[in-house]
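Study this one:
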Amino acid sequence: MSGQAGAALHQPGPPGISLLLWSKPMRDIAANPQSSNIFYLAADQAMLGQLRHKEGNTYRTPTASFRYMVGTILLETALRSPGNAHAATHARLLAMTLSEFNRLSELEQLAYLNDLWDTCYRSEIPSTDAQAMMDGLQVTTGEGSLPSSLRPKPGNGFATGLDPGPVPDAWTRWQTGFRVEGGKSRDGTRDDLDRVRDAGIQPVQKNPDLAVRVARKYYHKHKGSISPDLYIGYQNRDLYNESGTCVSRSLIGGTAFPYRDTFNNRAGLDPSLNGHLSYQYLFALDCAGLKGVDTESKQIQEGNDSLWRPGEKAFPGIPKGRVLGYARVIRRGKPPLPNGIGISGWAFQLLDTSWTWLREPQGPRRIFLDAELAAWQAHRTYVIEGKFDFQGA
């Protein structure tokens, strides 16, 4: 602890402070994540409860949303590897004590959190036309980008092989993306279909209240909720999911993110937890004419096995007029391989073999979409091997 911080601890502070907690570094807010299905509750709640703003010679207790935002940002940075050029700044900021942080004004604290965020994520302006984004290869062998049309390889083994479908260049032709968004709860208290139908698909970081409901993360007042930019992590060289709307070029890729399990798809869990879903919605999306970030191309440029083979594109949201239709799906997570070693790519079960159209497409695109969904049996669990997941898996 610096002499300045040590002296600060002995200055008069607000009632109810814990000198022990005030002496801890900010990294400790995320040092021992608590087991919780609610993301922001994984942060150290005792330390967050000691947060203050300095206003002149007095302290002010921040709002609950500010405290939880601090917890969210610390969890998303202290547990991440920074960019090589930012390692020293990352370490220095995380070493700041809670006492030093509390003696900053609210604006200074926000600046601190923004600086910490920038050590782990770089901003990307969504400026690439969808039609200019790359498509996949014509084959599924090797480790390159997969075709935009895929079929299950015949056979009844544990894992499902993939063959090219009849329209491997479907992205080039129509810029159709696929994504799972929201779902319907078992007790009927939550159904995200109306939200998507009425408002399209929004990046939750840009809509902080939605982020609390859907991702259980707080971004209120953080710059990521204000900036139109998307963010890519230095550690995984991939889009920070909540900052943009990711889509896959292929229907099967769309079943894999933004996460790979239908939360609470089993009995006995607290219904107030995130999810408690009976199933989720896999949407077909018209991305033609939209501007975004070709994350697939950037992953290839990064090298070092950064490529997600099904092909990811990212946009600053999908307007409601671009949501074509949906099918219901249950994601089954990452089941272990038969030998018990390692983790396969992902598993899913479609509940429909035909789309429910919201804005029915016509012509060749309609034929393509019908065939892509009908190729997969309903109520059968498909396990996609790791070799079709991230390059080098």
Observations:
- Confidence is low (pLDDT under 50) at residues 1-12, 264-275.
- Residues 147 and 304 are 21 Å apart (CA to CA).
- Residues 106-120 form the longest helix (15 residues).
- DSSP finds 13 helices and 16 strands in the chain.
